[in-house]
Design goal:
With 560 residues, this protein is α+β, with helices and mostly antiparallel strands. Helix 12 runs antiparallel to helix 13 (490-506). The protein has helices spanning 16-27, 63-79, 99-111, 121-127, 148-161, 216-221, 286-299, 369-384, 410-417, 434-446, 453-459, 472-482, 490-506, 512-528, 534-549, 551-559, and strands at residues 4-12, 32-35, 51-52, 84-85, 89-94, 117-119, 135-141, 144-146, 165-167, 170-181, 184-194, 200-210, 229-239, 247-250, 259-263, 266-270, 274-275, 308-319, 336-340, 354-355, 358-363, 425-427, 432-433. Mean pLDDT is 87; it is low at 323-327 and 543-560. The strands form four sheets. Strands 1, 2, 9, 10, 11, 12, 19, 20 and 21 form a nine-stranded mixed β-sheet that branches. Strands 5, 6, 7, 13, 14, 15, 16, 17 and 18 form a nine-stranded mixed β-sheet that branches. The protein starts with a strand and ends with a helix. It has three domains: 4-44 and 149-228 and 333-384, FAD/NAD(P)-binding domain, CATH 3.50.50.60; 56-146 and 236-309, 2-Layer Sandwich (D-Amino Acid Oxidase, Chain A, domain 2); 403-529, no CATH class. It is globular, with a radius of gyration of 25 Å. The relative contact order is 0.13. Helix content is 35%, strand content 23%. Bound molecules: flavin-adenine dinucleotide.
Length: 560
Amino acid sequence: MKKLLKIPVLIIGGGVTGTGIARDLALRGIHCLVIEKGNINDGASGRNHGLLHSGARYVGSDPDSAAECARESQILKKIAPHCIEDTGGLYVAVQGDDPTYIANFPPLCKQAGINCQSLSVQEALTLEPALSKRTIAAFRVNDASVDPFHLSLENMNQAIEHGAKYYSNCQAIEFILDKKRPGKQSITKVRVRNNLTGNCFNITPGVVVNAAGAWAGIVANLAGISLDMIYSKGTLLVTHNRITTHVINRLRPAADGDILVPGRTVSIFGTTSTRIDNLDDIHPEFTETDFLVAQGAQMVPGLETARYIRAYAGVRPLVSRKDAPKGDDRAVSRGFYLFDHAKDQTKNQPTENQVDNLVTITGGKVTTYRLMAEKTADLVAEKLGISTPCSTADTPLISRAPSKLIEAGMSVKLWAKDPSPGDSMMCECEMVPKSHFKELLTWLKQNRETADLNSLRIHSRLGKGACQGTFCSLRVTGLMYDETYIKGSQGLDNIKFLLEERFKGQKPVLWGSQLAQAELNEGIFCSFFGLDMADQNRVDNDMVDQDMANPGIKGQANGK
Ligand SMILES: Cc1cc2nc3c(=O)[nH]c(=O)nc-3n(C[C@H](O)[C@H](O)[C@H](O)COP(=O)(O)OP(=O)(O)OC[C@H]3O[C@@H](n4cnc5c(N)ncnc54)[C@H](O)[C@@H]3O)c2cc1C
């Protein structure tokens, strides 16, 4: 029998925007459900630089976005300090960079209301000894580093504490429209597929919020609405350790390989901007890796010889703008777009082909997600006739979840402060002890989330250090068996999935030490444990199990 679920607001997409909207609505007392086709931050929110923009990057190209970033980053620093590291940022130019751009930078920052302090080259090199000796100009701005996983999880956790619901691995696949009134349609049912089981169920929504990021056009299309989206892929590299303490930006018009962000124990370097057509095949290319390293080394020479532990790619959800120059996706606005599909999108007037209860929010940045959520929740509240105002700019974003464990280096601080006798270390790269995984597993179960290696990866630092899951995956799987979270062959499936996913990220950076690391991993899991033969072994075991259960049949077969 099909399940039918009634919910005032259905949010499609569990990125920072969707979870931010859930938090905003829940704080206003409006019930909502977030459905995500994978897991939290499976889209761009989990595949970005983690730069909390001061706005300085956009002062030349998009002053409105620049000013928006300046305001929103201050709010996020106030409400979510535990998700942010206030590193500060440096803009540096090297020999050969455009002197006009350098001269224009401080006045442009001033116009957008962005703090910008001029530094001598010597001051910059003292602050960041890793900078190139060919540096010719430097400015200090208020950039910071944000952990987007921590941010989205905290959004969702706080929303759940205020009555919201979250379904992972659930994908909106069809909208059923009420077409009784010509030209005035509304979504009466949303058909949802559970991507783990393949089962489908229907949701009856009051209002549907399309927060599907780069997939927003595909989701809008389920209602017959066409959105002109541009898919701009960006590739990023993760270094083995932290290379600088500040965010380092190249002082030139936005280009490839010009931002280095310290992200807890590592640094994240990128990015590229390549137009793509297919959202199902997003991966970093070897050529991008080589190009990025060559570009970055001009600014920070150590990037040439650094050990990289993985690469990843994400797609920016950009909305096509008719006046954007062809071929350069950086010229497409990084601002956000909120569409009320009850109205004509260009004139904001009632339209012939309206869908009363659908809104789409897309574009923007992690830095501006809270504002995007506020504007969307205002529109949803208006549609529901609710006047409770937004409170997200003043309400601290701190939930009761064991979220400290997601912070790299946090476990070691806690461990050093309060070492519990008898506790053992499960992850040496990120120093996470057994007791912390136990706590997280209990929390996942209490919150009806799947307690498996992938969920643990999302909610903690598992698999994120230099060994990319080689040792922690084994130890934590053992713990999950001991504590009866998994049984049978689930452990093998868990490890295989985690390592295969981690390997995708390692492939483009396999040289030097990381190649040796990957070979060790292969030696342990393939040669020693035979994980590459796991599927075959499972078939053989299943046959043995069946034989044991049906000895008569076996006897007959043997008799032949
Ligand atoms: C390479 C790169 C670097 C970036 N760097 C920065 C940065 O440093 N700072 C910054 O502020 N911003 C940065 N951004 C921008 C930022 O990452 C995005 O703007 C932001 O994460 C978008 O969030 P979102 O929730 O709107 O979309 P997403 O995070 O993409 O979330 C959409 C979600 O919807 C889900 N979904 C799609 N279809 C369905 C469906 N039918 N049913 C259910 N779920 C569905 C997807 O699985 C996905 O999880 C960067 C982006 C990229 C690509």
